Amino acid sequence: MLGEGIMKGLMETAKNFAGSYVSKERLTTVQYPEERVVPAEAARVFPFLVYDGSDWQAGLRCVACQICEKECPPKCIYIDKSADKKPDAVGKVQFYPARFDIDISVCMSCQICVEVCPFEAIKMDTQFELATDDRFGGLLLDREQLAKSNEYYHHIHAAEAGEVDARLAAERAAYEAKAKAAAEAAAAKAAAAKDAPPAPKPPTGAPPSPPAPASDGGVD
Amino acid sequence: MSASNLDQIFILIKNWLVAFLPQFWQPIAGAILGAVAIIAVYPTLFALAVLMERKGLGRMQNRYGPNRVGPFGILQPVADGIKALIKEDVVPFRADAAVHFLAPILLVVVVFMSLAVLPMGRNLVLVDMDSGLLFFFAMGAAVELSVFMAGWSSRNKYSLLGAMRAVAQMISYEVVLLLSSVAVVMISGSLSLVKIVEAQNHYIGILPNWYVFTPWGLAGFVMFVIASTAETNRSPFDLPEGESEIVAGYFTEYSGFKFALFFLGEYVEMFGVAGLGTTLFLGGWTAPLSVLAVVPSWIWFFAKVELWICFFIWMRGTLPRLRQDQLMSFAWKFALPFTLLNLMVTALWRFMGEGWERWVVCSAILIGAYVLMGRVGMHKGQIGPRRYRYAE
Asked: Does pTM top 0.80 for this prediction?
């Protein structure tokens, strides 16, 4: 009969109306500033720089290799290499970024910088409350604003951070073993050179080694 | 204070205030006071209705609705009002500025004027006009003028389309609205809304003698509800302002306070139409049971109007928008013939005299016609559920 469907519809909305006061499951809205949804493991917003230890300047994993700057599709990363060097996460003495800025008003959250970084230095953050009243300076994040501890990284992406830590530990062990072997070889050579003084001088310091296996590029 | 004093409290306050003035000024002051009261009360109800609508619609869609401004969001209308007031008033470069400016004012003026003849309680009517119903419909027709002024003067295709749709729809449904009210006039024998309420103000036992409790009254009431929904451009008849098609219809080019005036006008029109429907079919300010007559009459009037508004909101939360051809077919192929038939049934009711026979005969005719017309119309696909060729 005419009007039957309307009655059915009216009953449905009435059920919704009454039900929303009775059962909490109906109301799926999260009251945002007070209540929050825990971000998903794979959530990503903008990149940040990981540092180890407690001092962000000393522990920054970034070695200013500028691969991310070159790979960035919208060109939102600005890096200046330092003049001096300091030991990196693995222990090698490397450059560090004197300036590392990301313009998050340009960044498109593509994660390519993270994928190309050989040093596990840049990762995706889940922080999304970045609104500011200064759209130029406020959205250009500098080194200090970008630097976040490894503990924070573990907090937001636990599984991924665990893998990264294991890989870095393996690299560090490999590097130390190599350095030790090199030092031993150098010592042996030095001992041999003592026996034969006119031999050419052995190389001092760390022998050059590849920065990291290429397969380590992707972290996810 | 006795119950009858409470019932007449507004009249008593008015008389007390007016008594301070010399004799000559008293009628004018009384009229001004009444108008001020109406202009104060209805925007308050408007704020309440908007809040109710937003919260109610939210609940129907399993959301919370506004709940940020003040406790439970009850101050939301205040925030909305401030926002509307401080917004920039943009007038399109090529618009007809004078008409563009006048349209919202005309709308608000005519909808408030139509409220003057509504009896909102015992003796609580601003103008007891002999032809109050006629006056109300005359003012209702002026709304169309305002809508078309707004649409035409904006120089915007959406505005114009919205205005065209609005005028087509309002004229079509005004016929139904008028004819369904004529049935009441035929029985009560008066165009005065006060007399129409008086005619319904007696009880059979404790049950009220409202017109909606008669076969012709129920049919007229249903048609009146449908036509009044269309007349006030409410969903599912909101084609003139269908957001998904024509932005905001005839008031696309209005912003800030003028937009707020349109919004206010629309809601006050809704109150007016609901008040008229209450007066015609639901016994106006009379109590639903004779024992409840101690409650002040104006409370009953406003309670009925609010219930009517709740029903409008409920419909808005339920029904999707009609298509233009469905709208027109429904008005001309179903609603109009049915109301015409209802007029004949009303005449039959009038002349069959007291007794149970007229109940049987009138109900049978109306139910039979409803079922038959519904079947035929649905079979032909003119009315009833939508059918889309691509969805079959």
From this structure: no
